[in-house]
Amino acid sequence: MTTPDHTETRILPAWLYPAFFWAALPVLGASLLFPPLTFLGVWYMMTVPALAALTVSVTQWRSDRRVSLAALTALLGLGAVILVKGWIA
Question: Whole domain around residue 72: which residue ranges?
């Protein structure tokens, strides 16, 4: 059985998801125990995918430009959502 060329371990470093997962647990626990800190949990959970997309766009620029451009497009979409939300609110 052969492995596919595109796997998440080829694109993202293997340590990235476990590190963010274990860093997220205390943040989410604090937001559950102290409701005024809920915004920290929300911002952290929004920041993790953005950091992963930024990591992919930087590290894959030379080897797989399509993946890098897809990650940049996702970041631009997130920025547009935040910008429009700011205009509406």
Answer: 37-89
